[in-house]
Amino acid sequence: MGLSVELRDVAVKYGDFLALKNVNLHVEAGEGLVLLGPSGSGKSTLLRAIAGLTPVASGRVYIGGRDVTDLPPDKRKISMLFQDLALFPHLNVFENVAFGLRLRNLPEEEVRRRVVWALELVRLDPAQFMSRRVHQLSGGQQQRVALARALVVEPEVLLLDEPFSHIDLDIKNRLLEELKILHNKLGFTLIYVTHDRFEAVEIGDKVALMKAGEIMQVGKPVELYKRPKNRFVAEFFGEANILPASLLGAERNGYAVVRPEDVVIGNNPTYKFRGQVIDITFLWHYLKVEVQSNGHVFKAYVDLETPISVGDVVEFGFDAKDVYFVEE
Amino acid sequence: MIGRIALVAFASVVVLFYLPFLALGYYITGGGELKMPSFSMVATTFLLAALTAVVSIAVAYPAAYYLAKRGSELEFALLTAPLWVGTLLKAYSLLVLFAIVERYTGVVLWGTAAGVLAGMVYEYLPYALLTLYAAIEKLSESPVNAARVLGASRLQAFLRVELPLTMPGVAAAFILVFLFAMGEVIMPAVLGAWKVYTFGSYVWDLYFKARDIFSGSVMSLILAALSLLATYIVVRTIRSISI
Prior knowledge:
Chain A is of the alpha+beta class and 328 residues long. Chain A contains nine helices and 18 strands. In chain A, helix 2 (93-103) crosses helix 3, helix 2 packs parallel to helix 5 and helix 3 (108-121) packs across helix 5. Chain A is elongated and about 75 Å long. Chain B has one domain (2-241): MetI-like fold (Orthogonal Bundle). In chain B, helix 2 crosses helix 8 (167-182) and helix 4 (87-105) crosses helix 5. The interface between A and B is medium-sized, with 25 and 21 residues.
């Protein structure tokens, strides 16, 4: 199950604005990919180009190896969850979910069986919810209906455009968890758009980080975190200390990236600094300490019980093995 | 609250308009015999009004859809241009047009129901257009997109999603045009040449030809009541099939 998705040199223009700049991307069949990026980076546009909702100016889109660039959305074997859900307000829950099935002219019995299946899949009791109007449902329930509606047609590719951005954190986490289980169980290819890096690592086997209409880096979360291709990736994908390479005495241009958990206070690391603590934040698993030194603010994650307070002058630093250099 | 406002609006019409005429008519004629309309006249009026509303909406919907999706301001202004011209002027210009049509095709429009219908549609089309435009314009794109990715063609998405979602606008346009058309006097008089005889013309004749103000005011009350009833039924029907 699931079809691969491939984009070759895809460009999308909105008037004179180039929203996507010759993007290349390959998503394996059944894989879960997250398109991550700040707003305006083109991630939703990319998703809409795959869905066929936005025409591409140049390049080709392939789904399952088949060129679908010129096919309308209804011929692409995809399904999509929208940011605003786009439930049909004039239909009840049953008819919302049954929408895609009705278009396929299935017999009533089959429609009913599959709607019940889909509602159970997203953990909505069919007997209780089937005849409800969508505006009578809570936000989380509406999300589930939208998900059921997208899954009932058994899509090969499921596209999600920030579907959980407007709901409570608890419900969001539970839905993400369930989506992951469904993804494993049903085997469709999943492409998920978000601006939230925490959400991104919850759901994706791979992450594609976008900026200004281009994909900066694609890879497993740990690759992006440990070996960012550039300064932007390092900064957007997790917290980082970004220092000019020259500050470490390296004979090269570019920047040195050091993750805050690799910065140690005290000890005797390779690169040593001395500075004053300007802020300490409690972050559940650790303390985030900000230290001013050499005109930079260094961030360090330290143990919760570390005896340290604002105003202290401390020795700190990091080892050479924890430094990663980027060109730009 | 809304109920009270509605009641005040309704009562003011009755108290300021219908009752004085009724009383005046009764005082002048001293009662007398009520001249009831014939059934065929009532039927003609209803049918013409309903047809006017249906045809206006059928023509205005695609235009309003186009305007809402990608129309220019100029096209908008041009489509509503008939509003700038008075009804009587429109009626007489249409007479000229009818004469031309008759001269070249042999199709007689003057004095026929079709002619009156054409006139009334021309007259009320802009109202239907504006009402429908407002309904279609506020439609968000995402339900249509949702329908598309679920396998609906452009046409299916329109029929199953956009059209039902704009039904309140269709209902509003229907009521507006239907009510106007129910009381229409000028188009049947000029274009129908009194051969297409409607309720509006009848009330007009009672007032200004027969000088029977009592019958006239009773008839206008009946017309108002019938229109109200028809509106009620239409709104209920449309509400039950849409949101």
